[in-house]
Amino acid sequence: MFKKTLKKTTVDFASLITHQFKNLLTEVKLSLQMMSDGDFGKIGKEQKDIIEKVLERNKKLTSLVDDLLDISRIEEKGHICNLQLVDVEDLIEFLIHIEQDEIKNKKIEFKFEKLTSHQKIKLDKEKMYVALQNVFNNAVKYTPICGSVTVSLSQTENNLEIKFQDSGIGIPEDQKENIFTKFFRASNAVKMEKIGSGLGLFIAKNIIEAHHGKISFISEDGKGTTFTVVLPID
Ligand code: ADP
Description:
Blueprint: H1 2-36, H2 45-77, E1 83-87, H3 88-105, E2 109-113, E3 120-124, H4 125-141, E4 148-155, E5 159-166, H5 187-192, H6 200-210, E6 214-220, E7 224-232
Helix pairs in contact: 1-2, 2-6, 3-4, 4-6
The chain binds adenosine-5'-diphosphate.
Adenosine-5'-diphosphate binds near residues 168 and 189.
């Protein structure tokens, strides 16, 4: 009993600190953006470039904090609530919209292969958005400049399938078994992208399985990866 209360207090405290961290990061971001826009006075190109770099670091830190917040939400509640009928195509269109800048900046050839008609399924929309965003963001993040990323939807009698296919760095054979483990990052991913939590796929798997779905992948080191998410329609 005492142990349980202590654990809850620790989780509450971690969650409080993480929220405050996120608020502070947002404040720093807004101030930097205003500075970059010249709201506090004219700035030169050199200063602007430095501010852009700090903003990029701020974005990465915010993404780590977001992972921590998602983890504490999963560990606080551990289950899915707020089920509603969600149009999966619309949800993915929104994901694409959020990743658009990164896709453009990296000159990634991007395709979205849709179903012939819209399909609605019962999901916790916010949580499923987090799960799919983690998978999609990895596809973009771990694909080098001028690579390709394709998202495709397909349907069987009972399931909806979402594939995220990329021509990125791939996952080394000897590290595949650890890929959904909390905090795990493969050696080639650490080399390419120094900052990362290794929590995104752990979170995605938890959320997808809480919807009675499945997530799996096939990957070839140095060639690319395809993650497949299967969600029951009913
Ligand atoms: P993070 O991206 O913060 O490192 P994730 O939990 O999202 O953490 O992913 C865990 C690891 O799985 C990554 O560090 C990387 O090694 C590997 N990974 C995930 N998606 C891909 C992908 N599309 N291509 C190559 N490696 C990937």
